[in-house]
Amino acid sequence: MAQTKIIVTEREDETPICPYCEKELAEVYTRSKGLGWLEGKNAICFCPHCKKVLGFGQSRMM
Ligand SMILES: [Zn+2]
Question: How far apart are CA 24 and CA 49, in angstroms?
Answer without folding.
Answer: 9
